Amino acid sequence: MFLVTGATGQIGRRVVRLLRQQELPVRAFVRLSSRYGELEHRGAEIFIGDLREEKDIQKACQGVQYIISTHGSDGDPLALDYRANIELIDCAQAQQVRHFVFISVLGADRGYEDAPTFKAKRAVEQYLQASGLNYTIFRPAGLSSNLLSLAERFRQTRMYLLIGDPKNRTSIVSTDDLAQMVVNSVSVGGAKNQILPVGGPEILHREDIPHIFGRVFNQEPIIINPPLFVVDGFRTVLGLLNPPVQKTLGTFRTLLANEFFCTHDEIARLESIFNLKLESLESFLRRYLAV
Predict the structure, then answer these.
(1) Contact assessment for residue 232 and residue 246, using Cβ atoms and an 8 Å cutoff
(2) From the CB of residue 189, how many other CB atoms can be counted at a distance below 10 Å?
(3) Which residues lie below 8 Å from residue 208, measured CB to CB, with a gap of 6+?
(4) Is a pLDDT exceeding 70 seen at residue 235?
(5) Of the residues 24, 90, 220, 253, which has the fewest C-beta atoms closer than 10 A?
(6) Which class for 226: exposed (0-12), middle (13-18), buried (19 or more C-beta within 10 A)?
(7) How many CB atoms lie within 10 A of CB 112?
């Protein structure tokens, strides 16, 4: 039995699909308010619970052999990125789980003090490594599925908001490729007890993304490029009204201010371990947007 947290998210939903295509038993951890009908239709066992509740995590982990943690912070990195994952790891030890897969973030080990999500992910990585469990940790640089809504907006307006340095480099991984690697990591020897940076086959500049949109839709992009201090001013104002939200925006600013890309050697290693050819961002967009 596989337990997948964040099962209705971009990564988790795809992981559940792939597992069920192989007719493997899956328990999908979902919230009551989420849309889980597709997962149920595919034959996944639906577990409705709250990752903030220790008792729900303990109940969900009963009888599982594999745990795949794909959930995000949902604005609460302490409770969800950190505490929920620590509890999952403790339950995995108690259940003698065979393999634990954790979705972290590229740059988790860089010490970004102003980014709660990065700090939480790194603490969980270290806890998992020290747990004695077999594990695979993935550090994606960016998910192609996160750009679909931006692409749809571009289709209507030709406009693209690019905050900060347009020359910063990035690697955008096909979310389908990442899900395939996650599923395969429990059985591929080269992924055992590894931390794997994950990106797409290209090292892009952030300014390349609207031009890729332009090629997909055959439209010239209108790029709006405000400086990063606009975000800083917004955070300052929010800090006066809602300090917790200001902290959450620290992660957003970190993502805007820094480069997150995989080297060609890191990509070649991924393709070798998992025996796949990674998909480009443009190919992913054309598939999903039917153009």
Answers:
(1) no
(2) 7
(3) none
(4) no
(5) 220
(6) exposed
(7) 21
Helix, strand or coil for residue 100? strand
Count the Cβ atoms, other than its own, within 10 Å of residue 167. Answer: 10
Nearest alpha carbon to residue 199 among 102, 84, 281, 274: 281
The token pair that represents 53 in the structure block: 């509740």
Q: CA 60 to CA 57: how far, in whole Å?
A: 5
* pLDDT bucket at 237, cuts 50 / 70 / 90: low
pTM over 0.90: yes
175 close to 144: Cβ distance less than 8 angstroms: yes
Do 80 and 57 touch, CB atoms closer than 8 A? no
| β-bridge mates for residue 136, sequence order | 101, 194
Amino acid at site 82: Y
Helices and strands, counts by H and E, the chain:
12, 11
Cα torsion angle, 172, 209, 217, 9, sign: positive
Q: Which residues pair with 47 in a beta bridge?
A: 29
Task: Report how far residue 85's alpha carbon sits from residue 75's, in angstroms, rounded to the nearest whole number.
Answer: 15
CA-to-CA dists, residue 259 to 103, 110, 142, 158, 178, angstroms: 19, 11, 11, 25, 20
- CA angle, residues 5, 3, 17, in degrees to nearest 5: 80
